[in-house]
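Design job #97: recover the sequence.
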């Protein structure tokens, strides 16, 4: 309660002599600065909304338009073709203004209307231009004349100096694929996975669905696509994520890794200070919409930026049957976990961001604090790691009042969560490979109680200065968190830096109050629920096998010389490795972004490994081209998985049963894959500092009997892999080490055949 008393701006006592009012000038100053910052932020948001709202024009273009129209009023030209005169006749203030004043006001109204009409026209033209996707299907390096003209027009109508959300209103809506096309592509994709009899049965179900129930469901889906910004995203968020009742840990959350060959400082508090400060700089850029809009590689085609909105100040709240996402416009603190205790650290002092050196001091006070955890506090985070319904019921029962409600609110309303981990991670010890695997598992699940898996992301800083990030998946996809993480570690290493002793640079204000330790009153009944959740989470974590490794023999540079897409090459290697491991192919999931469309998230590129005979280059190139074509269709809204998923949701709303949809959507993804591209290469110098780049990130297996494979292509000569599976699976009993060996053989084997024939 001491912190609460410090925050009181005044005290008063009543005596026979009257009321004695005692003002705390320091507290009043803090209130004033906080309010000033809040008003500045509101003004900036209002300004940004206006600038974004009139894009691709600019406020200065309105002034130019008004000036040009006014100048014509003093010449014989009338660009309005009499409309200014008509406006002048019908102005309701004609009795109060002179003739010249009426002329100016009429010209102002006309020029403003003309300016708004031009904005709408330019935006509509840009939206129509962005509906063209022929460029994505053209061979790399060979651009048709049509695409060249189209690119020139896009560049003209895309405007100058866009802000983060400038293109949102110009992005086309995700189209609903034709039912016939989806059925055809689906049957093509599953043909190699089924026997003749199985395929004939599936084809019969598909034809029956296309002829009977499908058109009715398709009609409702088209109706939604006309009404909603995106016909997939809201249902995907709700039914795939928020209604899922299993643990977020491993099953949904994913992680990003630090540099693995270098550690900027071995001082834990200093590393945390710089990383948190870098994240706050990113948040400030995000609030001001100063982050450059994402564009497709090697072009200026904009991507949807909607997912950035909930990056900070966001928490997934558990509910019985369905979770909800809580997003705040601002948060002035972070929540910190260390050695079983929770703390609140303020982010502002005297109306400014805390400096790195001041944040380091805050974290060092937490590390030096000898206070033991309160009963039930140490393992409290396990509630967020296990099944959702028990956590929701515990939250309703034990965290709705008193100090528990206050402390939980502080955690959930924090800008983000920070774990000062008591372990050391990284390439260390006699077996660096095993150390890297342990590092991956620690970032994925930790001790199952030392992360807050509900937060949009948790920053993890280890005792030896290594770091990483664990992110919740429902609010956005991995590229958004990866963008933040790239900026954070690059800013930490190249812009902020450390002094000769490894401490954060800069000065500090010694009057800043210490972190606030959160208080809890957790009854024995709740402690029992916590222990049960921890038991579930530990069983899941101990069942995960992980293998993270760099592949340095060659990279995309050599692959591209063989005239093959690097992503297709890796996907074919994964198929070959899986076949060599299991002697069969499986349904494969590859995440493909659909952010060419408004509020787009991901789609699935289904693989077609037809007669994958590695000894024949022709079939290899056919398979690679097939993969590229499927991936391009998925990116341009013609994928299979999300369309079938939405048709299934409509059928459930209508209370209709479809044997075809039920069977299709129950098929397991035994091989779940995802590429994590480096989006901000300009932040890194791979020539002079090749070790200063993130190792990428990973996730758990989507299916209990499958593999999860994440890969990141770094520069021209490096590919990093993160492979996961479950020990308990009879299908993956060979564990990750075996699939790693098969993958390495496949990488070399396929490249060898390409080089032999090139």
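Job complete. Output follows.
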């Amino acid at each position: 309660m001491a912190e609460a008393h410090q925050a009181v701006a005044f005290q008063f006592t009543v005596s026979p002599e009257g009321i004695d009012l005692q003002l705390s000038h320091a507290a009043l100053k803090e209130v004033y600065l906080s309010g000033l910052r809040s008003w500045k932020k509101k003004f900036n948001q209002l300004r940004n909304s206006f600038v974004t709202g009139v894009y691709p024009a600019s406020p200065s273009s309105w002034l130019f338009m008004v000036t040009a129209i006014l100048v014509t009023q003093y010449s014989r030209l009338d660009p309005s073709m009499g409309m200014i005169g008509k406006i002048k006749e019908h102005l309701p203030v004609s009795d109060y203004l002179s003739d010249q004043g009426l002329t100016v006001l009429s010209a102002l109204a006309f020029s403003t209307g003309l300016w708004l009409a031009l904005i709408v026209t330019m935006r509509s033209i840009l939206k129509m231009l962005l509906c063209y996707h022929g460029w994505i299907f053209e061979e790399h390096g060979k651009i048709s004349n049509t695409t060249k003209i189209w690119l020139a027009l896009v560049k003209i109508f895309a405007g100058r100096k866009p802000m983060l959300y400038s293109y949102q209103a110009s992005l086309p809506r995700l189209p609903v694929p034709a039912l016939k096309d989806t059925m055809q592509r689906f049957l093509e994709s599953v043909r190699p996975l089924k026997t003749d009899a199985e395929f004939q049965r599936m084809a019969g179900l598909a034809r029956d669905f296309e002829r009977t129930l499908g058109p009715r469901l398709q009609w409702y889906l088209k109706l939604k696509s006309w009404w909603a910004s995106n016909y997939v995203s809201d249902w995907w968020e709700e039914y795939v994520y928020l209604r899922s009742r299993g643990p977020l840990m491993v099953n949904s959350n994913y992680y990003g890794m630090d540099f693995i060959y270098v550690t900027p400082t071995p001082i834990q508090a200093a590393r945390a200070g710089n990383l948190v400060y870098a994240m706050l700089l990113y948040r400030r850029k995000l609030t001001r919409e100063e982050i450059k809009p994402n564009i497709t590689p090697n072009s200026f085609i904009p991507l949807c930026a909607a997912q950035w909105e909930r990056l900070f100040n966001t928490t997934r709240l558990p509910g019985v049957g369905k979770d909800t996402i809580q997003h705040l416009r601002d948060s002035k603190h972070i929540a910190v976990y260390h050695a079983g205790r929770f703390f609140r650290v303020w982010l502002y002092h005297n109306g400014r961001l805390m400096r790195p050196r001041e944040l380091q001091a805050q974290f060092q006070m937490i590390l030096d604090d000898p206070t033991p955890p309160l009963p039930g506090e140490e393992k409290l985070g396990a509630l967020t790691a296990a099944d959702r319904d028990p956590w929701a019921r515990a939250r309703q029962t034990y965290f709705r009042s008193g100090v528990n409600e206050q402390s939980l609110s502080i955690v959930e309303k924090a800008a983000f969560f920070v774990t000062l981990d008591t372990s050391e991670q990284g390439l260390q010890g006699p077996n660096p490979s095993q150390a890297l695997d342990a590092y991956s598992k620690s970032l994925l699940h930790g001790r199952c109680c030392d992360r807050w898996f509900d937060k949009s992301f948790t920053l993890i800083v280890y005792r030896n200065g290594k770091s990483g990030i664990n992110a919740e998946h429902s609010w956005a996809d991995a590229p958004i968190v990866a963008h933040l993480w790239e900026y954070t570690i690059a800013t930490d290493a190249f812009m902020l830096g450390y002094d000769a002793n490894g401490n954060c640079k800069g000065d500090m204000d010694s009057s800043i109050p210490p972190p606030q330790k959160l208080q809890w009153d957790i009854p024995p009944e709740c402690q029992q629920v916590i222990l049960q959740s921890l038991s579930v989470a530990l069983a899941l974590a101990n069942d995960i096998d992980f293998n993270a490794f760099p592949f340095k023999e060659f990279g995309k540079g050599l692959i591209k010389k063989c005239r093959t897409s690097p992503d297709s090459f890796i996907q074919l290697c994964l198929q070959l490795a899986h076949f060599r491991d299991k002697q069969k192919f499986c349904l494969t999931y590859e995440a493909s972004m659909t952010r060419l469309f408004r509020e787009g998230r991901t789609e699935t590129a289904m693989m077609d490994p037809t007669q994958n005979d590695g000894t024949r280059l022709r079939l290899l190139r056919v398979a690679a081209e097939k993969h590229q074509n499927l991936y391009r269709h998925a990116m341009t809204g013609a994928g299979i998985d999300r369309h079938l998923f939405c048709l299934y949701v409509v059928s459930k709303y209508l209370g209709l049963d479809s044997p075809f949809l039920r069977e299709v959507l129950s098929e397991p993804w035994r091989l779940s894959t995802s590429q994590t591209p480096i989006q901000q290469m300009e932040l890194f110098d791979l020539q002079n500092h090749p070790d200063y780049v993130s190792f990428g990130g990973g996730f758990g297996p989507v299916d209990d009997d499958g593999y999860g494979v994440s890969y990141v292509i770094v520069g021209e000569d490096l590919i990093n892999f993160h492979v996961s599976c479950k020990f308990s699976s009879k299908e993956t009993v060979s564990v990750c080490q075996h699939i790693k060996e098969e993958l390495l053989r496949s990488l070399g084997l396929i490249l060898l055949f390409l080089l032999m024939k090139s």
